[in-house]
Design a protein that fits this description.
This protein is of the alpha+beta class and 306 residues long. It contains 11 helices and 8 strands. Helix 1 crosses helix 3 (43-56), helix 1 crosses helix 6 and helix 8 packs across helix 10 (233-252).
Length: 306
């Protein structure tokens, strides 16, 4: 069979599945989904997951198996089938992520967690299955790491609010201290469980959160956090901060407009008292999520100061 035809077919199957689950979740905001795990090890879903992981490239995890190694030494079909069997038989166990320090502009480093290619493939398959469910709940103010959304759109939304008569005079620019490293596993899982009750899917996510980190040959336990670098991490991060988006939309939108890109967010306010109250509210919501505002990087800006 033509390789391009197969790739297009698996992509279309994945898209169809995502759309079906999205529509079901949108139609019933309180529905919990239970029959999902068997879709993760569907051959077409795993094939699409592998195609996306392969396209995204990335280096090898702690097992040293790069994408090139898998293509050359293992073979795509064998690699996918082996994963499928492990998932079907309940034998899949994730490996610890490889910790790599990425230099930042301020001279500090940002920790990056690199899962093995096998784990990235399973994470991608799981993401393909569950993403549509949570997309049905995500708010319009959220732009980061979502299908058909971008940083450019977030910036455009901010500019339009400022320039087109929305009377924005004050901007609360917020940085969350070490966001990905401080996500509470128990609270994240409670938020996931609001939509998913398939125990095997929940077990997969817990295993990734608790797989630990290998640094300089030493294993470190992960009690909190979701490592940046994992395929599933951006989705989990959005699920966690969707709590903030939802609370803000329901109770505090009168204070100002929230625009969020992953863990970067701004509140666009008309008056200074609203901006000051917004800061107070954000700190309270962060407290419930066991997060803290980075006061050295967060700031309150007056747009029209001479």
């Amino acid at each position: 069979m033509n390789a391009d035809y197969t790739a297009n077919a698996t992509n279309e199957n994945a898209r169809r599945l995502q759309n079906t689950l999205y529509l079901a979740a949108k139609e019933n905001p309180t529905r919990k989904f239970h029959a999902l795990y068997d879709k993760v090890f569907r051959k077409d879903i795993l094939q699409e997951a592998w195609t996306r992981v392969k396209t995204n490239r990335g280096s090898a995890g702690i097992d040293g198996q790069s994408i090139e190694f898998i293509l050359r030494e293992i073979g795509e079909e064998f690699f996918i089938e082996e994963i499928r069997q492990q998932l079907m038989n309940g034998e899949y166990r994730p490996s610890p992520v490889k910790r790599k320090e990425i230099p930042k502009s301020d001279g500090k480093t940002r920790p990056l967690g690199i899962p093995t290619v096998r784990d990235r493939t399973v994470q991608m398959a799981t993401k393909l299955v569950i993403e549509g469910i949570f997309e049905a709940d995500f708010k319009d103010c959220s732009y980061g790491f979502r299908p058909k959304r971008s940083a450019h759109q977030a910036i455009k939304s901010i500019r339009e609010s400022i320039n087109w008569g929305a009377a924005v005079n004050w901007v609360v620019d917020v940085d969350i201290a070490g966001y990905f490293d401080n996500i509470s596993h128990s609270k994240l899982m409670k938020l996931v469980e609001e939509r998913i009750c398939d125990r095997r899917i929940l077990k997969l996510i817990r295993q990734w959160l608790e797989a630990g980190v290998m640094k300089d040959g030493v294993w470190h336990k992960t009690k909190i956090g979701s490592p940046q670098g994992g395929v599933i991490s951006p989705l989990l991060a959005n699920i966690y901060l969707n709590y903030l988006d939802t609370i803000w939309e329901k109770r505090f939108s009168h204070l100002g407009k929230l625009v969020r890109y992953a863990d970067d967010l701004v509140i666009l306010c008309r008056y200074k008292p609203q901006a000051l109250e917004a800061i107070h509210v954000l700190k309270a919501i962060f407290g419930k999520l066991e997060l803290t505002m980075n006061t050295s990087k967060s700031k309150l800006v007056c747009l029209w100061k001479n």
